[in-house]
Amino acid sequence: MSTIDQNTLKQQDNEAGHTTAVAVEDVYKSFGAQRVLNGVSLAVSRGETLAILGRSGTGKSVLLRMIIGLQMPDSGAVLIHGQDIAGLSIDRLSAIRKNMGFLFQNAALYDSLTVAQNVAFPLQHNEKDGSDSEQSDRVRQLLSEVGMDGHLDKMPSDISGGMQKRVGLARALALNPEILLLDEPTAGLDPISSAEIDDLILKLQSEHRMASIVVTHDLHSAKTIADRLILLNQGCVTAEGTFQELQASNDEFVREFLKHS
To answer: Could you tell me where the DSSP H helices lie in 68-185?
Structure first.
């Protein structure tokens, strides 16, 4: 679908008054006999960052995959700008996905491509009308935004884990998404690199005003970057609110989670 079609979709969403960018409504998901999500609901507006917390295996990453349309709920709805993505045609779902950026847990850079080529990849596959020079300028701009403009010709194996995350963020921003999904953005990083990634996420959110959803085990990171937090337990939303509101919770699981995280 063309850039004009993408802009038309955004305009239609705005005219329809969909200030909520992402909404998950009473979603259930099982894999065989294992119930992973048990009636989960959440909503994220433009310019807001929501952190999803919980123990391993509580369905946090499954939620992200549902939001981007890689998996579908057994019941309930996932709405992007008011549009339920279940049952959409491949063309329509692809058009919606182009408005979403995704940072994978391990950055998921292509080992055989340079830093610049990794960032250019979504542009080459989705922005057919742009010239090579325009795409090159866009790649340099994106890498400059994340502090990686001096590393264009390096291979992923030649840069640190934190630098790979930066490149992954640049690639996620390539198509000017209104929704940004981040899966464990600080996982595997040392405290200094984690703090740098947190600062970068805050900077990008301030500049781009996206609706951002972050899945993380890093409570300090969640406290730093998120406007609201959701804590999942046994497939349900156990608590939701600011970090201070979660701290004030009398729920035993919430208190134990915050104490040990």
So the answer is: 90-97, 115-126, 132-145, 161-172
